[in-house]
Amino acid sequence: MPEVEYSTVVNLPPEKVWDFVKDMNNWAPFLTGYQKHEILSETDSIWTLKGDVGVLARTVQLKAHVTEWNGPERVSFTLEGLNELVDGGGTLLMGPYTQAPGEAAPIVPRKSFFRRVIDAIFRFFFRRMHGPAPERAARPLPANGAASKLQFTLKMEAGGPTGPLVNAMLGPALLPAAEDLANKIAAHLEQAHAAK
Amino acid sequence: MDFFKKKRQWDKETDVLVIGSGGAGLVAALAARDAGASVLVLEKATTVGGTTAVSGGVVWVPTNHHMAEVGIPDSREEALHYMKRLSDGRSDDKLIEVYVDQAPAMLRFIEKAASIPFTALARYPDYHPEFAGGKPGGRSLDPGLFDSNELGDWKKHLRKSPIFGMTAMSVTEATDWGVFSNPLKLPFKLLAERYSKGFVCYGAALVGRLLKSLLDQGVQPMLGVAARELIVEEGRITGLRAEQGGRELHVRAKKGVVLASGGFEWNPQLVQQFLGGVVTHPNSPPGNEGDGLKMAMSVGADLGNMNEAWWCPSVVIPGEEYDGRQLNRGDFAIRSMPHSIIVNRRGVRFVNEAQNYNDLMKPFFAFEPNAYERPNLPAFLVLDQAFLDKYALLTIMPGQKAPDWLPRADTIEELARKVGIDPAGLAATVTRFNRFADQGKDDDFARGDSLYDRFYGDPAHVPNPNLGALRKPPYYALEVHPGTIGTKGGARVTVDAQVLRVGGQPIDGLYAAGNVIAAPAGSGYPGAGATIGSAMTFGYLAGRHAARQKAT
């Protein structure tokens, strides 16, 4: 199953991050290829996303079901394709971030050299198609421990006989999607609070 | 008084300037280069390959040297007789003759120049194999697979088909594996592996190899450059005004300009002006807007075959996009499978659904003068659950739940009412068709009689591989739209691919090939790859002839 993990640091305490994240309506438009979403209940919603599948773009409807809603630390959800044979899920983890003095905010978790090269190539192509995620310069964080680590894992798997092929196409798109969402949430929060 | 003329400022200079990077343009460039000319290729899109790259990549070459390898004899006379009949009087016999005579030489040339491992498709019949001079196979050639990594940095600029671009299988493999009749048996793990490794097939494989050869010779196509105006000096074409990112670019062509810019099917105004049919859903890349045609017209080119296209029915999955436009998928095989029919809004069949896609479309445009309407538009593909149990419908694999966008109903009448077909008419048609399916013989349209029909059928289905009853609910309907893989009317050319002006003389310095010319095939479609075979042959002729001209 194609699965990715991406984490970033937000220059705000976890409670502030949670205040924003706990309402899906706040960050739904930050999803890559977002078209619309519909809240069905406290735990269920339907997401319509337009994304590149291999060479063409396709509109996918996903039903999201929240399985764990533990603010301000953890949100877990499952995804079920309504018009495509894809399933998956993910987790959004938030927690206090502590860093060594003068350390810049880590943007990408440490991976193997090969994986980092592959990811960089995919990000390059993804940005060519969808435009960049908001640029956030790495910089020293306040020493008072008021920053949060925002970690996003996402997995998707295509089923049916064509599953192996669709997974080969989906895989490269997942990391940019996770990266895009986490960075947009972080950038939005930092800008909103800087403006206050 | 030359002395007083303002000296023109050229941004670039070349011997032969090629506009467009599909099969016609790339072969013209290779042929000109081979003849010693310097070459520049301009492409409006940001990817190389044009319509060829999204095609099956098959090349139709009668009397080709690979036919002997599969034991199918052929002759010039048979090919000429066959092509002339199919052209339906809409082509110039001299152009048919030069195609038949020069295509084998073109094939040998590109095989060598671009290392293309062509194989003759012994089981891929001509599109009217039973006509005199038609063949059961062998004239259509498969370009095989291509590892796009061979293109280095240019890999990302290779256009890929939205349909075939992700499933790297050669035409031979697709045939052997039963891509249409047995989709569950396809080796999806192998295809995933090939996709991840960068292998491409069909048109992208053909274009990839041609591009590689060009790059190896130091010719790098300029992408994102739109040709706008031919420059005429003293009655001769000497260059081009183009646009690149909002800036003008003037290119001098010392020996000639080759228009290889594709058809005009994505230009609604030209479609309305010229096409005989009502094309609403082209299934080619959206950049085919008639740029070359307009430029040829502006310098006085004579035109021919303007109301014709390489017709192909289109079907649509809502929300799918390619190059930022709704993707119209060509229906090459769905309609040939058992358990399906095509009907008009009266619920009546009007064509052999398994006929080749070009000729199939012609009755869609039939005109009924009393009612002053086209009775066969809109048209619908109607199928039953037995179809979905066995065959793939677009992206819906056998056994998969039908998506919401596909209308369905438990009875034929209810389905008809849902989509706007006369219920009684459709019910009567299905009853009649089911009888044909049971007896294995279509008394109305002879579906399944031709070898061509059966090639696109289900060989395991008896007694007729193209006929299966519609009896298993639910029933489904899918609108079939008038489409085309490219128009085939345009500038008339000489046997050397020089553009003719009105009055019959060639326009000095101007050549054309591919869908920008009045196709030698006229109204017909001789066999798989007749589009590309013709485009590449006239590209070959254009490139060679232009390269031999005296530089201006």
Describe the structure.
Chain A is an alpha+beta fold. Chain A has four helices and seven strands. Chain A has a seven-stranded antiparallel beta sheet with strand order 1-7-6-5-4-3-2. In chain A, a hairpin with a 3-residue loop joins strand 4 and strand 5. In chain A, helix 3 crosses helix 4. With about 550 residues, chain B is an alpha+beta fold. Chain B is about 30% helix and about 20% strand. In chain B, helix 1 packs parallel to helix 15. The interface between A and B is medium-sized, with 21 and 29 residues.
Task: Kindly list the characteristics that best describe this protein.
heterodimer; A: 196 residues; alpha+beta; seven-stranded antiparallel β-sheet; 4 helices; 7 strands; globular; B: 552 residues; eight-stranded mixed β-sheet; 25 strands
The greatest interface between two protein chains, and residues involved on each side, is: A-B, 21 and 29 residues
For the largest beta-sheet of chain B, the strand count, sense and barrel status come to:
8 strands, mixed
Unreliable segments of 5+ consecutive residues of chain A? 105-112, 124-135
Radius of gyration of chain B: 24 Å
Short description:
Chain A contains four helices and seven strands. Chain A is an alpha+beta fold.
Task: Show the helix and strand layout.
The complex is a heterodimer of chains A (196) and B (552).
Chain A: E1 3-10, H1 14-21, H2 24-27, E2 34-39, E3 44-53, E4 56-70, E5 74-81, E6 86-97, H3 113-130, E7 147-158, H4 163-195
Helix pairs in contact in A: 3-4
Chain B: E1 12-19, H1 23-34, E2 39-43, H2 50-53, E3 59-60, H3 76-87, H4 93-114, E4 119-120, E5 140-142, E6 146-147, H5 171-177, H6 188-197, E7 199-200, H7 202-216, E8 222-223, E9 225-233, E10 236-244, E11 247-259, H8 268-274, H9 291-298, E12 303-304, E13 309-311, E14 314-315, E15 321-322, E16 325-326, E17 329-330, E18 340-344, H10 357-361, E19 379-384, H11 385-390, E20 408-409, H12 412-419, H13 423-439, H14 451-455, E21 475-480, E22 484-487, E23 490-491, E24 498-500, E25 506-512, H15 530-547
Parallel strand pairs in B: 1-2, 1-11, 2-8, 11-25
Antiparallel strand pairs in B: 3-5, 4-5, 6-7, 9-10, 10-11, 12-23, 13-22, 14-17, 15-16, 18-19, 19-21, 20-21, 24-25
Helix pairs in contact in B: 1-7, 1-15, 3-4, 4-15, 12-13
